[in-house]
Amino acid sequence: xxxxxxxxxxxxxxxxxxxxxxxxxxxxxxxxxxxxxxxxxxxxxxxxxxxxxxxxxxxxxxxxxxxxxxxxxxxxxxxxxxxxxxxxxxxxxxxxxxxxxxxxxxxxxxxxxxxxxxxxxxxxxxxxxxxxxxxxxxxxxxxxxxxxxxxxxxxxxxxxxxxxxxxxxxxxxxxxxxxxxxxxxxxxxxxxxxxxxxxxxxxxxxxxxxxxxxxxxxxxxxxxxxxxx
Length: 229
Ligand SMILES: [Zn+2]
Description:
- This protein has 229 residues and is α/β, with parallel strands linked by helices.
- Helix content is 39%, strand content 21%.
- It has a single domain, classed as LmbE-like (Rossmann fold).
- The longest helix is centred in the first third of the chain and has 19 residues, at 50-68.
- The two termini are 16 Å apart.
């Protein structure tokens, strides 16, 4: 099984889906991450510069991926907070889908705009990455006449069969991550510019709440979409 995760920032997939990725890796899957932005805005430190942060966050994401057993992390280097689900981004995602041929694409649910209960707005880049990934899966990666020039790079049309959209509030699929929670926390700790003790506790709490729905100790939630062959 091949799995491709598509997200906006270094750390997005680790917060929302890394317990599941680690589980799939343990089961023998080949997993890849595609990170659309450079993460250059994610710091309140007055001494931090964008260039320094970009390098740090890429290294953090690579370390986290190594902990989880992710085969490779690809970066598209769009500017943080400026991601747009345009044809350029969609083509970049199509290119990677046609290259790694994933059975499953995991991405951020683009229909999630805000949460009243949890009191926050979902980052604009998260929505853009999720929307572009959805459009890349269907119809763009599938159609022979779309991005015909990619055929010259031996990137022929490809049908993804399953999508997992990370979703906390209304998941259709709850994955037991009790055995990989420890790896998830280690992966999150690798994001040293982003993570705090409180954030780790919050993640544990959310994964505990999701687990409760199915009698698991810890779980991650997704909306699963099965596409016709
Ligand atoms: Zn993010």
